[in-house]
Structures are given as C-alpha cells and as structure tokens.
Design a protein that fits this description.
134 residues, alpha+beta, 5-stranded antiparallel β-sheet, 5 strands
Amino acid sequence: MDDCIFCKIIKGEIPSYKIYEDDMTFAFLDIARDSYGHTLVIPKKHCSNVLDCDNEYLEAVSKTVKKIAVHYTRDCGFDGVNILNASGESAQQTVFHLHFHIVPRKKDDGIDMWPLKDKYDIDFADVCDKLKLN
C-alpha cells in the first residue's frame, strides 16, 4: 500500500532500527520512546489487522513474536514481555497495518500495562452464551 508507513519501512523508504527480518516478517523498534526496547512485529504483506490477515502471514508473525520474546528474556536480561495488538479503530488501532507490540519488562520497571478500572457487573453465563464459538 503506497501510503502505509509500515509498508514504507519494509521497502526501506523510511529508516528504522531493525531487530529482525525474514521472508515474511519485519521487526523494528517503536520510535515512541515509551519504554526501553519496545518492538513492533509486522507482516511484509500489507493487511490492516488480525481480522483480514491470512493465516499464513498471521502464523509467521506469531512465530516471529515468540522468537523475539524468547530472545529478549533468554539473551537480553529481561524478566518478561507484554505482547499487545489492537485490531480496529474501536480497539485504538492507529496504524492500519497489522502489528504486534513487544514490550520487554524487568521487575519493578514502573510500567503499568494494566491500569486499574472499575469492575463491570457481568453475568458470565449470559456473556458466554453470546460469545461462544459454535
């Protein structure tokens, strides 16, 4: 896609700090500067998000996410990782090229990925009936 910033990064039209690349995926540092090592993993084929990505590319992206997460925890001194994805505008997706965030974590790093919110009054049986995959 001509106007997609991530497609331009893949093509080398926009510089990036590449962490990993293979035939189907590309991983690079997020320039938001919100945490040390924040990495984005994307497919080289343009798709908007998880909802329209074919299984072959989604599987390749998942494998790359795991490869990098294992590397960060095994080889780079991190204790864990957060792996995040937003698919769709209502989920707060802002760049419409599928991407997964890997945020490397250390104990007591001060990052709160799960801010506390008020709890919803949920009837789990009702929710399960509405969301169950038959």
